[in-house]
Write a structure and sequence with these properties.
The protein is of the alpha/beta class. The strands form three sheets. Strands 2, 3, 4, 5, 6, 7, 8, 10, 11 and 12 form a ten-stranded mixed sheet that branches. A four-stranded parallel sheet has the order 13-16-14-15, covered by helices on one side. Helix 8 links the parallel strand 11 and strand 12. The chain is globular, with a radius of gyration of 19 Å.
C-alpha cells in the first residue's frame, strides 16, 4: 500500500524512490502523474505494467529546463518560441530525438520523436532533484479517468505504488496540450490545458488540426479517460437511472430525477469546468448510474480540450 506524503515534505523521499527505479505518483498542475526515471528501461516498463497501458502508446518526458530538454531533443525555431512562452506550463512539444538521447525507447514507443513538457511546481522540482527527465503519464489505470487528487490515485493504484505525493487538487484539471511543428506549421495533436488560441497568438499562425488514427503522441487513443458508466453526449434531457453532468445555467429536462448531478461550472467558466471535469466524472460514476448524460460544452478556448476528453470517454471501449 502506498505511503501518502504531503508535497512540502516529500521531495527527498520521491527522488530516492525514482533513483532506485521505483515509481512515484506526483502532482503536476494538470493531473497527477505516474512518475519513473525516463532513462531507466525497467522503471519505464513498470509504468506500462502498473497502468496496464499499451506499449505502442508513448509517454511524455518531463524536464526542469529548456537546457535539459535540449540534451534529449532538437528544437526547431517555432517550438523553441513556444517553449519560451509557455514553459513551465501545460504545453507538451513533440520534437525530434537528439542523437544519442538517453531517454529509453519505451518512452517514445519506438518513434523518432519524443514528447517533452516542463511542468510547474512539485513536478519540476522533482525532475531538477533527480537530474534526469521523468516519464509521467496520468496516474490511473489505462483508459480510465485521470486523477486530479492524491485520493483518486490511491483508490485506483495505491496497492501497486510505494509513494503518493499529495499537493491537493490540481489547478488545471486536464492534461497538457500537445503540439508538433511540421515544416514550420504548428499541428495540434491533443487539445489540453493550454487553449489553442493562446498558442496561435504566440505562433502568429493558425494551428493545424489533423484527423487520422495514428498514435503520434500520448492521449491519442480513441477510447480513453473513461468511467465505468457509459457517456451520452449533447444531452437535452435526463433518462431514468441516469446521472447528469451539466454546464452553465440552462435547466435540463428530467434533471430532478437524475441519480446524481454535477455542474462543471454554473457560471459558464471553462477554466473552472476543466478543473472539475475528471473529479465530477468520478463522482457521478460512483452514483451507480449506468449512463451519464452530458450537456453541451462550447468548443472555444478550453472547451476544445473538455470536449476531446468527453468524446474519448464516450467512445466504444477497447475491451
Amino acid at each position: 500500500m502506498a505511503q501518502i506524503v504531503a508535497a512540502d515534505a516529500g521531495l527527498e523521499k520521491a527522488a530516492d524512490c525514482l533513483e532506485s527505479g521505483q515509481l512515484v505518483a506526483m502532482p503536476t498542475e494538470t493531473v497527477y502523474g505516474l512518475a519513473g526515471d525516463a532513462t531507466n528501461g525497467v522503471a519505464v516498463a513498470k509504468i506500462f505494467e502498473t497502468k496496464g497501458r499499451p506499449q505502442f502508446n508513448p509517454l511524455i518526458a518531463h524536464v526542469s529546463s529548456i537546457e535539459m530538454a535540449k540534451q534529449y531533443a532538437h528544437f526547431d525555431p517555432l517550438s523553441l518560441k513556444l517553449a519560451d512562452a509557455f514553459w513551465p506550463g501545460p504545453l507538451t512539444l513533440v520534437l525530434d530525438l537528439a542523437g544519442g538521447s538517453a531517454i529509453h525507447p519505451l518512452v517514445t514507443a519506438g518513434l523518432e520523436t519524443v514528447a517533452i513538457r516542463m511542468p510547474s511546481g512539485f513536478g519540476r522540482a522533482l525532475v531538477e532533484k533527480l537530474g534526469r527527465p521523468i516519464a509521467a503519464p496520468s496516474a490511473n489505470s489505462s483508459g480510465k479517468i485521470s486523477p486530479t487528487t492524491a485520493r483518486a490515485v490511491n483508490e485506483d493504484l495505491g496497492a501497486r505504488l510505494p509513494l503518493i505525493i499529495d499537493a491537493g487538487a490540481t489547478p488545471v484539471g486536464v492534461e497538457s496540450t500537445i503540439v508538433k511543428v511540421e515544416n514550420g506549421v504548428p499541428v495540434l495533436l491533443r487539445p489540453g490545458g493550454l487553449a489553442a488560441e493562446e498558442i496561435e497568438r504566440v505562433a502568429g499562425i493558425p494551428l493545424m488540426r489533423r484527423g487520422g488514427s495514428a498514435v503520434e503522441a500520448p492521449g491519442m487513443m480513441k477510447s480513453h479517460y473513461a468511467p465505468n458508466a457509459a457517456l451520452r453526449l449533447n444531452a437535452a434531457e435526463v433518462g431514468e437511472d441516469e446521472a447528469l453532468l451539466a454546464f452553465g445555467t440552462e435547466i435540463v429536462v428530467g434533471s430532478d430525477r437524475a441519480l446524481a448531478v454535477r455542474n462543471l461550472s454554473e457560471s459558464g467558466d471553462l477554466a473552472q469546468a476543466a478543473a472539475n471535469l475528471f473529479s465530477y466524472m468520478r463522482e457521478l460514476d460512483a452514483s451507480g448510474a449506468s449512463m451519464i448524460a452530458v450537456t453541451p460544452v462550447p468548443m472555444h478556448g478550453l472547451g476544445e480540450a473538455i470536449n476531446d476528453r468527453l468524446a474519448r470517454a464516450a467512445a466504444p471501449r477497447n475491451e
